[in-house]
Each structure stands twice: as structure tokens, then as C-alpha cells.
Design a protein that fits this description.
Helix content is 69%, strand content 2%. By secondary structure, the chain is an all-alpha fold.
């Protein structure tokens, strides 16, 4: 793939993923093929796309049970958390609908009741995202914050269905943003680790050649590394790169 095709492919893949999220984490094979219709993909390539979606807990022509992907630790946490929620008021479908309408009208009590009624829904949504390097606890925490904000923003919608859709979207967006931030943090951590390893390896090789520890200036001159990179690696490692002479600084 050239760069343009890669960008188009990535956009189509994200469109498929978002559509699946909006459909309860499932999508049909035909919907996927429609999204990628202008990319002339072979059946083998569609098979890889289907595998990718399934790895991200998205059912292709089937409904995925999120509980199947939970570890015992996650199941225990969710079970304990749901037991705590049982101590709160339990809402019937009618009471939940009434709270939704009250919240849409800006009623503070209705907003509070709606948030309480939706706490279990946050758990179910979190199950869709567990397993992506973010704990269930953190996902639920972010979802609850989004819910608290969302119940105060329903005056902009006209129907209960739209209000429910807005709440779910805000909860899902919050969880996806948390996952994205976590992934970016992992990438950054890996980049920093690579910098330290690069400088440490260069220092080791030069120290072996000279038979002693090396200075930053020698390392920069002999190994082609910038003093800025070396200094950053030293700072990140806390001066733990053994083959560099740090002097009295």
C-alpha cells in the first residue's frame, strides 16, 4: 500500500469499528465490505480485517459476549462492584424513563436519579473495552465521570432515544479516549526506553574499546550521537548508564 491507500484503509477500518460500537459491538460482513468497497480488496484481505475486528471484541455476523474475554480478576472486580451498586436504589424501566425525561427538562433530582440508574450500564459498556491495557476500574471511573456530565447535557435533544444515545456515546468516547491516552503513554515510554538503550549500548562499546568509562563529549564525538540525546538518556535513566563518566555533577 502507498501512503494514500494506507490512510484510506485506516479510515475505513476506524469507520467499521465505530459502526460496530454503535451496533452493540457487532457488524455484518456485508457492512464491512460496503465500507471497503472502493479499495478492491481480496477475500484474504477481508479475512484479515474480520480477524482484526474479532481481536478487538467485535462480532462479525455474530453477537459477542463480552464476559467471555474477562479474566478471573476482572470478573471478581466487576462482581464486587455490581454488588455495591445493588445497595443503591433499583429503578424499573418506567422509573428510568421518567428520570430521563426529567433530566432532559433540566431537573436536578431527575439528573441524579438518571445517573444512579445508569451506573450498571457503564459496567456493561466497560466490558467492551476491557483487555486493552486499561483496568476495569479505570474504565468504569472514566465512564461514570462522563455519565455525570452527560445527564446535565440532555436539554439539547428532543426524544428519550436521542438522550440515551447521547449518554452512551459520551461514556464510550470517554473510555476510548482513556485507552488512546494509555496507548500513547506506552508508545512514549517505549521511545524513552529505546533512547536509553541506544546510548547505553554505544557507551558500552566505546568503553570496551578504551578500557574505561567514557565522557559525554567522547561518546558524542566517537559514536555520532548528539549531546542532547545523551543528556536526555542520562536524565531518563537517573545516571544509571554504567559506562558513562558523570564526574562530580
Amino acid at each position: 500500500m502507498n501512503n494514500n491507500k494506507e490512510i484510506q484503509f485506516a479510515k475505513a477500518l476506524e469507520e467499521a469499528r465505530q459502526l460496530a460500537k454503535n451496533q452493540g459491538n457487532s457488524i455484518t460482513g456485508e457492512q464491512v465490505k460496503e465500507i471497503f468497497a472502493d479499495q478492491s480488496l481480496a477475500e484474504e484481505q477481508f479475512a484479515l480485517i474480520f480477524d482484526y475486528l474479532k481481536q478487538h471484541k467485535i462480532g462479525v455476523d455474530e453477537i459477542i459476549d463480552p464476559d467471555e474475554y474477562l479474566t478471573d480478576e476482572e470478573k471478581n472486580y466487576l462482581e464486587d462492584y455490581l454488588k455495591e451498586l445493588e445497595d443503591l436504589r433499583q429503578y424499573t424501566a418506567g422509573e428510568k424513563a421518567a428520570a430521563l425525561l426529567s433530566a432532559m427538562a433540566g431537573d436536578k433530582m431527575g439528573q441524579g436519579c438518571l445517573m444512579e440508574a445508569y451506573l450498571p450500564e457503564v459496567v456493561e459498556i466497560a466490558k467492551l473495552y476491557i483487555g486493552q491495557d486499561v483496568s476495569a476500574e479505570d474504565l468504569i471511573g472514566e465512564g461514570n465521570v462522563a455519565l455525570a456530565v452527560g445527564v446535565t447535557m440532555l436539554g439539547c435533544v428532543e426524544t428519550g432515544k436521542e438522550a440515551e444515545g447521547l449518554l452512551v456515546k459520551m461514556i464510550m468516547d470517554a473510555m476510548e479516549e482513556l485507552i488512546g491516552e494509555t496507548e500513547q503513554a506506552h508508545i512514549t515510554d517505549k521511545q524513552l526506553e529505546n533512547k536509553v538503550n541506544q546510548v547505553a549500548e554505544a557507551a558500552r562499546e566505546l568503553a570496551q574499546a578504551l578500557g574505561r568509562k567514557v565522557t559525554i563529549e567522547e561518546l558524542a564525538a566517537e559514536e555520532g550521537l548528539t549531546e542532547e540525546l545523551i543528556g536526555e538518556a542520562i536524565r531518563i535513566s537517573g545516571k544509571a548508564i554504567e559506562d558513562i563518566e558523570y564526574g562530580n555533577s
